[in-house]
Amino acid sequence: MHHACDLLGWSATGQDCRALQIDHTLFWMGRMDIRPSTHYHSEGVRDFNAEARSRQPAASSGIDLSEQGLIAQARKETGLDRFGDESFLPAMRALLASLEGEAELNPFGRHIARARTLRALKNRLWANACFEEHPEIRERKIVAPIVVVGPHRSGTTRMQHLLAADTRLQHLKTWEGMNPAPRQGQPESGKTARFEETGKLLDGMRTMYPGAFTAHPMEADWPEEEMLLLNQSFCGFSALGLYHVPSYYQWFLTADKTWAYREMADLMRLISWSRGDPENKRWILKNPQHMLDLDVLLKVFPDAKLVFTHRDPLKTVGSVMSLMWSYAVQHTDLACRAKTRDVWLDFCEQMLRRCMKARVAIPAPQQMDVYYADVNRDWRMVMRRVYEFSGMEFTAAAEQAMESWLAKSKSEKRHGDHRYSLEDFGTTESEVDARMMFAREHYAIPYEDK
Questions:
Q1: Strand 283-286 and strand 146-149: pairing?
Q2: Are 440 and 354 in contact (CB under 8 A)?
Q3: d(CA 268, CA 278)
Q4: At residue 3, does pLDDT exceed 90?
Q5: pTM of the model
Q6: Most CB atoms closer than 10 Å: which of 2, 109, 200, 426?
Q7: 31-443 to CATH, choices 1.20.140.10, 3.20.130.10, 1.10.150.240, 3.40.50.300
Q8: Cα gap 311→370, rounded to integer Å
């Protein structure tokens, strides 16, 4: 048995340290796991950091996160110069400032931040080139999208995948979300390259983030949420899970994202146009972030049909904290469970409160509620309700496609055994339940384990 005080570099007697002890497997403060993130680094992350530090011992490891450097590199790699509307710059600047000043990134974390920023900038350049050559793309209609809205881990992904099994509806695929813009001058406008790049990226992510991919597996051609499109504007929630960026989080909560949602809609038009889909083919959308920005969503998609999902907050909050920590822990060497807890407990509460307030002004025929337990109990009954609400026939073909997806997902064990504990994050079921009780009572959300 070792004293935690020694490991933390504190000077104290054994008696002073009795409350902080580490055994051979666990390092706790009270019940919270406070081991440094290095304890959880995947082998690939350890190797990357060691190599980077051997080449460049400085804290930045020679990985440039400056606005000027990133924009110059994006222009160099694409051969394009014009971004079009530059409304994204304040969002990008807020994120980059927080990354440099607060995130305490290790070399791998800086590498990821740079790669993600570059990919977004390059896609913006490619997308603008398409819009300049084909201005008619922005005139395409988006008709009454079916939007799945609910807390992370509340069954939104399952609902999205069920709907996506219906070929009468269109949805975003992972490779399209990560690389949404056709690349002029490349074979097939870069379609194959974009798909293969995404597949290679996901292969690397499975190695670097094994815990995250157990909780939320991804494939290049699977349905994915339009958070990926908002990421192109530096307004998706991804950064909140990847890094400790408290000042960016405050910007994120208060910023008017109308421009980003309009850009998201334009990227949807671009994707649909590049596929050759008809304008009247309805979209399925899904993103927990819409809870925070429901008014903006409806400003951009005024005829959207909103399907709200509900699940026991004791399950959703613990699960999303664990998922986001599984990413963040690879990007820093310092303990980050408490930071993850503080942001995501607050974010979950903020989204629920804003969503509840915004729903009051939405006409009843435009919204419906779906409960996680009901889908578990009788998914066909729930989907019939969703289709009736959406004004579509629940056909035998759609039902069979959904049944096939469910069977395949179960047989392939696509969703692994995601284990997590609120106590690991220094909180308890009673604390989380108290904070989220307003939503439980308002929507009559049952406890899953009682």
A1: parallel
A2: no
A3: 12
A4: no
A5: 0.91
A6: 109
A7: 3.40.50.300
A8: 9
